[in-house]
Amino acid sequence: MKYLLVASLLLSAAPAFADLAPPPVHLPEAQPAPLSEAEALKWVQQLDDRQRNSGDYKTNVYIERKERNKNDVVFEAQVFRRDADDKLMILFQAPKAEKGKGYLRVDKNLWMYDPSTGKWERRTEREKIGGTDSRRADFDESRLAEEYAIKYEGPEKLGSVWTHKVTLTLKKGVDAAYAKLVLWLSTTSGNTLKKQEFADSGKLMRTTYTPKWAKKFSPSKKGDVWTPKEIRIFDEVEKGNNTTILLKEQDLNSLPANLFTKAWLESQSR
Known about the structure:
Order of helices and strands: HHEEEEEEHEEEEEEEH
Number of helices: 4
CATH class: Mainly Beta
CATH architecture: Clam
Number of strands: 13
Number of domains: 1
Helix content: 10-25%
Strand order of the largest sheet: 6-5-4-3-2-1-13-12-11-10-9-8-7
Radius of gyration: 24 Å
Distance between the termini: 88 Å
Structural class: alpha+beta
C-alpha cells in the first residue's frame, strides 16, 4: 500500500514537473543555398502566379499619407481587378474631397477621373495614386517576370530573416513606373518582404516593405491567391514622406460585367 501511495503521488505530480521543463531552444535560421539563374526566374514567376487570380478581385483599402510639415491624411478606397483582361479600377470613397475620384486601367492605359470637373485624363505609370506615395502597381496583379529581366544576387539576411536578393531590369518597350527593382524574397514563404525601386538614372526612388500577406482560396483559379495585407512605402526623394496601405476584406467572387468602364465609375459620383 505504501508503494502504491508513492506511485500515485508521483503520477499526480508529473504535470508539475513538466511545467518546469526548460523552454524550447530556437536555433538561428540556416543560410540558404544559392539559387541558379533559372531557379531565381522560377521564384519570380511563382511570385506573379501566386498573386494572380483567373477571375475577379475586390478589396477595401485604407491609405495613410504622411508628409513633412503637413497633417496626416487617411484615404478610403475600393480596388477592383479582372486579371484575365488586365483591368483595374480604384474608386476613392473618403475623405470627402476625394470621394468619387477614380482610376481605370484598360488596354494598358491608365485613366484618372475627377468628379469635380467630370473629365478623364490619361496618366503615366509614375502617377502618384491620390497624391500618395503609392503607384498603380501597388494595387494591381504582379507581372514582374513578364516586364523585367531577372538577375540573382545571392542569399542575404534581412534583419533576422534569410532572403534571396534579386535584381530586375525593365525590358525594352515595357511601360512601368521604375527602370530597376531590387527584391528581397522570403526563403520560407517566397513572398516579397522588401523592394527598392530605381529611376532610369539609377537614383533610388522608393523603398517598400510588405510585412503581412493574406492567402485566400479562389474558386475560379482552383487554388490559393496571395495578396499583400500591409504595404509600407518610404519616399527616398522627399525624405520623411511615407505611405501605409492596409488591404482588407479581399473578395474573389465575380464582379458585374460592366464595372470596368468609364460610365460605371462616373455613375458612382452622381
